[in-house]
Amino acid sequence: MRRVILNITGTQYEGDSDERIELITEGRLIKKPEGLFIEYDESELTGIEGCTTTLVFADDSVTIERNGTLNMQMVFSPGRVFDSSMQTPFGSVSLHLFASKVESQFNEKEGSLRLEYELSLGSLSTFNKLDLKFKSMEDCVN
Description:
By secondary structure, the protein is mainly beta.
């Protein structure tokens, strides 16, 4: 396991409005036979405190799993639809995801991820962008 610094920017577009969240946090990078894993704990800023997010980088897709106060899985594979559900303390919501862009470059010391996707949760539909960069903490200058 390697400690990493994550810089995450998420933008959600709904109609004529957009909402942007930027987060810098510490995470953990784990190399497993099935791919590279990055996990971090969500904060009050993201609205899902008490939740751990795990990103799994595989050959042609990226999976984001959230566990804790919110449970869900999203698989981003270019041009494919992913159907799932999100479990919240208030019940379950259907989730439909279409990834239009999935770009990642990574190794065990640093990397980046760019996602563009449409997301439908129940009757709400949004277009989203996610940019994530990570760097090993031992390579960061104080």
